[in-house]
Write a structure and sequence with these properties.
globular; disordered N terminus; alpha+beta; two-stranded antiparallel sheet; 20 helices
């Protein structure tokens, strides 16, 4: 039996068990092996089996149906600023943390560690996405926190708990917990992406006062006054924020929920955001009423510190969108195989084959690109790979995340009215897709960042050229596209007006090169003809005549 014959998600009348999401995604398996994460196959196989169970899908539904609630005060009137979650949320978080999606490359570094972690993140993205937010921020926080190794109240007390694979949702001082998570707070009402306009202030606490407050763990304490318009995952045990330091300018600070003396930090959660999607996760607005924080990095170096974090969160935006695409594709394929229209299965209708095959190409290309990007993060000591990541991270976040909402809408339309109602998961998946394009830098911010990468160093063009050269010159369409792209990258990149088109071309070229090298010819050629020879359209189902849709769909529906 094909695994997807039992893939009736959320239909509790015919529940399915042990549909292994990992085994059912050939593009993911092949890309994982290719990019160097093959040592993690057994662990990923077990994770895919757990995620593919009917009960796990039910958790995703319940966590989104019963979203978080803010409890500002306890029953005696004391301020506590706690966020209450449905039990389903905690079960999903335990799966994620148990799989090491929050910290495995830092806890066990080695060849392919980032790629293996990315594959796990892709699998989780096919099930539930709100829980990925605190996991991503914790993952991204570690490189920044390692800059604070001279602060024992951060390094010694926090890093072992962050690297732990035990999910501990209790609201307690960190030394009493089995594991810890870290959130972020960058955006202010007046600033948005322009974090340099932040008005939150940080003032160093006089040593005598800090000693009286915190004893031996007082070193480097600052007092924080201000606000954050988006304070992600307020239930996390600590947050990294930006504030204007009285000495040095915009700086990065570590704010724990509980202070070294065991008291609650003065982080006042004003309300939770009422969001379009990502409803299982809590996002909030907060005020800092003389909260205490500790400097991470050097005073005035908040932007470089945060950019290190942002590169990792942007990687996860690419991975998250690719995961949701695969989930939406799976739903559409399953429905089309079960639904009979005008006397034959919907999947046998030529125009529907065009749509489904086009979606399958988009999903496979996104998966291949995402894991190739993760390999760049595994090779940060390689100057060329680091430069390639500098280009592909913002370009990929722009293009793949921007393609997501249209992809979700098309998949939902395959189901028609059934897909539009909340009984099926596609409505939820559709609502999830825009956030990855908005979070951690909108499309314009990403494309301008691509321009900056080329403007700062000619090595950016050289790194991209080296990657594209791996696909060779045998395919004339690809060789011509590559030549035109690299010719346009000669010299300074100052055309802000055309930055979106440039970013799109870069991603399409890399995706085409990867598919030419590693995918079957019927996949690679269909992608080239529909994305490079002709420009990709705003809708799917525009594959040219002669495309082997049956082969593409058979590959997407790999049987085990």
């Amino acid at each position: 039996m094909n695994a997807f014959d039992t893939h009736e998600v959320f239909n509790q009348a015919t529940p399915f068990e042990n549909v292994n999401l990992f085994a059912c995604d050939p593009a993911l398996i092949e890309a994982l092996l290719r990019e160097g994460g093959g040592a993690a196959l057994q662990e990923l196989d077990a994770l895919g089996e757990k995620l593919g169970r009917a009960g796990t899908y039910a958790l995703a539904r319940e966590a989104n149906r019963h979203g978080p609630e803010l409890q500002q005060f306890d029953r005696t009137g004391r301020r506590i600023d706690e966020v209450l979650f449905h039990p389903a949320w905690h079960e999903l978080m335990a799966i994620l943390v148990g799989a090491g999606a929050h910290a495995s490359p830092w806890a066990a570094p080695g060849p392919g560690a980032q790629v293996a972690r990315a594959a796990a993140y892709l699998l989780v993205g096919q099930v539930e996405n709100g829980a990925q937010c605190p996991v991503t921020m914790t993952y991204a926080s570690v490189p920044a926190l390692r800059q604070a190794l001279d602060l024992p109240q951060i390094a010694a007390r926090w890093l072992p708990k962050i690297l732990s694979r035990e999910y501990d949702p209790r609201s307690l001082p960190v030394e009493q917990k089995r594991g810890a998570l870290v959130g972020m707070g960058m955006t202010e009402k007046q600033g948005g992406s322009d974090v340099r306009s932040n008005t939150t202030r940080a003032t160093p606490v006089p040593p005598a006062e800090a000693q009286a407050l915190f004893g031996d763990e007082a070193g480097g304490a600052w007092r924080i006054v201000g606000h954050k318009w988006f304070f992600s995952a307020p239930q996390c045990d600590a947050h990294l924020i930006l504030a204007q330091a009285d000495e040095g300018g915009l700086s990065c600070f570590f704010l724990p929920r509980y202070l070294p003396d065991g008291s609650r930090n003065a982080i006042r959660v004003q309300r939770l955001k009422d969001k379009l999607g990502n409803r299982s996760n809590a996002s909030s607005e907060v005020e800092f009423a003389n909260a205490y924080g500790w400097l991470v990095g050097q005073p005035g170096r908040g932007i470089p510190t945060i950019l290190e974090m942002a590169s990792h969160t942007r990687l996860d935006c690419v991975l998250g969108s690719a995961g949701i695409m695969r989930a939406a594709l799976t739903q559409a394929l399953h429905h089309a195989r079960q639904r009979a229209v005008f006397g034959k299965p919907l999947v046998g209708q030529p125009l529907m084959q065009n749509v489904l095959a086009d979606l399958a190409l988009e999903s496979e290309a996104a998966t291949a690109f995402a894991l190739r990007l993760a390999r760049c993060f595994d090779a940060k000591d390689d100057a060329q790979q680091a430069m390639l990541a500098r280009v592909l991270t913002p370009a990929g976040k722009y293009w793949i995340c921007k393609r997501g909402p249209g992809f979700g809408a098309e998949a939902m339309e395959v189901l028609g009215g059934t897909g539009y109602v909340e009984d099926a998961p596609l409505a939820r998946l559709y609502r999830e897709l825009p956030v990855n394009s908005i979070w951690e830098g909108s499309g314009n911010v990403m494309c301008l960042d691509v321009l900056r990468a080329f403007g700062k160093s000619p090595a950016a063009r050289d790194a991209l050229a080296a990657e594209l050269a791996l696909a060779g010159d045998a395919d004339a369409a690809f060789a011509g596209y590559r030549a035109r792209l690299l010719a346009d990258l000669d010299g300074p990149q100052t055309d802000e007006f055309g930055a979106r088109q440039l970013s799109e071309r870069i991603v399409l070229a890399v995706q085409a090169g990867l598919l030419l090298r590693h995918a079957p010819p019927f996949v690679a050629q269909a992608f080239l003809q529909s994305r490079l020879v002709q420009a990709p359209g705003g809708a799917y189902g525009r594959l040219p005549a002669g495309t082997d849709c049956a082969a593409i769909l058979a590959r997407a529906l790999r049987e085990y």
